[in-house]
Design brief:
Helix content is about 70%, strand content about 5%. The longest helix is centred in the middle third of the chain and has 84 residues, at about 90-175. The chain is mainly alpha-helical. Helix 1 runs antiparallel to helix 2. It is rod-shaped, with a radius of gyration of 39 Å. It has 5 helices and 3 strands. It has a 3-stranded mixed sheet. Bound molecules: zinc ion. Zinc ion binds near residues 206, 207, 209, 228 and 233.
């Protein structure tokens, strides 16, 4: 059966509409699992960080305890020397003991200074521990939320995906085999998956290049299949596409995100 050009274009556009809906669904699902994976990585990083900080705090605490023990020992030693002072026999012994007491006194001062420094370090680390712990708690909550969201969307999309899959099969059957080949080839080559573009304010709805007025009226005449001279997409007019194509281009992403306002059937 030989179809009219108009009918061929309608069937082809139908397939494009279903494929675009599928692309959007996949794009939406594609981001959430990534977000969940990113959060999981971040949480592992934060947990490692917490463990490291706790280790550092333990070391500082051990250092402080060692200084305290040493101060105790010094004081005991000083007490002993002071007792010996009462039993000295000459000046030389007396001076020697006092010298020892003085040295131990200096060591105690030094140890107290060190404890003060370590205590400040300890306070800083404890603050870092607190902030890191808070961040970790928040990320865990985020993750829990995102996991629920993902599960819900997966469940919702499963139905939608199956429905669109069925629609696609039906739509593909109606497309002229030669056109289907061209369609598949174009779709592979364009970044936004749009092989059949609508005329959008006198421009190609796929690449936004101006379409010469004569070409525009040829497209409207449905006399033959016409492609965009600039990007090679098959062009249709608004009577085929039903509505104007709205394309959102995000520059920073290689995979262009798009949203097609589709006809009632594909919506
Ligand atoms: Zn174009």
């Amino acid at each position: 059966m030989d179809l009219t050009v108009e009918k061929k274009l309608r069937n082809l556009y139908e397939l494009q509409a279903v494929d675009t809906a599928l692309d959007n669904l996949k794009a939406m699902m594609g981001e959430l699992p990534m977000e969940v994976a990113d959060l999981e990585d971040e949480i592992i990083g934060l947990e490692t960080r917490l463990t490291n900080i706790e280790g550092e705090i333990g070391q500082i605490q051990d250092g402080i305890n060692a200084y305290r023990t040493r101060i105790k020992e010094c004081n005991q030693q000083i007490d002993k020397y002071k007792e010996q002072l009462n039993q000295v026999k000459n000046n030389r012994e007396y001076d020697a003991l006092n010298k020892e007491i003085e040295i131990l006194g200096l060591e105690i001062l030094q140890a107290e200074k060190s404890i003060k420094m370590q205590q400040e370090k300890l306070d800083t680390q404890k603050e870092i521990l607190r902030v890191t712990g808070e961040t970790l708690e928040n990320r865990r909550k985020d993750l829990e939320f995102k996991r629920v969201e993902l599960k819900t969307i997966e469940k919702e999309n499963e139905e939608e995906m199956n429905r669109l899959g069925g629609d696609r099969e039906k739509a593909e059957k109606d497309v002229d085999p030669r056109l289907l080949k061209a369609y598949n080839r174009i779709r592979k080559n364009v970044i936004n998956g749009i092989a059949v573009a609508s005329i959008l304010r006198g421009s190609c709805g796929g690449c936004f290049a101006r379409i010469p007025p004569q070409r525009q009226s040829d497209i409207r005449a449905h006399f033959k299949i016409i492609d965009c001279e600039h990007c090679g997409r098959i062009l249709v007019d608004v009577t085929i596409s039903g509505q104007e194509t709205i394309v959102e281009v995000k520059e920073e992403k290689p995979a262009t995100r798009k949203r097609l306002k589709l006809g009632a059937k594909a919506e």
